[in-house]
Specification:
By secondary structure, this protein is α/β, with parallel strands linked by helices. A 5-stranded parallel β-sheet has the order 2-1-3-5-4, with helices on both faces. The longest helix has 13 residues.
Length: 143
């Protein structure tokens, strides 16, 4: 699977995430400081969203200090459903019931162990087809 990993900071956690995802056999596309670019959270969130919505990556993991700003920015891209998650059950539910295609979390409170649990839950869960109508109802519409 091709996975974007975006963050507005390069930290030990982002380095561990990249290593973990590669260790699982995924191709990792780095966005922002982890990839050597000087981008803030808004630009990182938007770029990650564009990669997912455009089909350049299958999914994404997105971080900023709280996870909130980057997830909001990603959600401004049509077709992106970024979910800010703090635990594995929330990540699992975001995939199952919301067909989330971007996993977001904060750098401030997330340990590498919790991050791995979030990624496991997110990648191992499929969207519930019975939720397709609800998902379609939240797609952006013209005003």
């Amino acid at each position: 699977m091709r996975i974007a990993l975006g963050s507005d900071e390069r930290t030990t956690l982002t380095d561990a995430l990249a290593e973990d995802l590669r260790g699982r056999g995924h191709e990792v596309v780095l966005v922002g400081p982890p990839g050597g670019a000087d981008l803030g959270w808004a630009a990182v969130g938007r770029r990650v969203g564009e990669l997912v919505a455009g089909g350049e990556t299958d999914t994404a993991v997105l971080c900023c200090w709280t996870g909130t700003g980057a997830s909001i920015a990603a959600n401004k891209v049509a077709g992106v459903r970024a979910a800010l998650c703090t635990d594995a059950e929330t990540a699992r539910g975001a995939r199952r019931w919301n067909d989330a295609n971007v996993l977001a979390f904060g750098l401030r409170l997330t340990s590498p162990t919790v991050a791995a649990e979030l990624i496991d839950a997110f990648l191992d869960t499929q969207a519930d087809p019975d939720q397709a109508g609800t998902i379609a109802a939240i797609e952006p519409r013209e005003p």
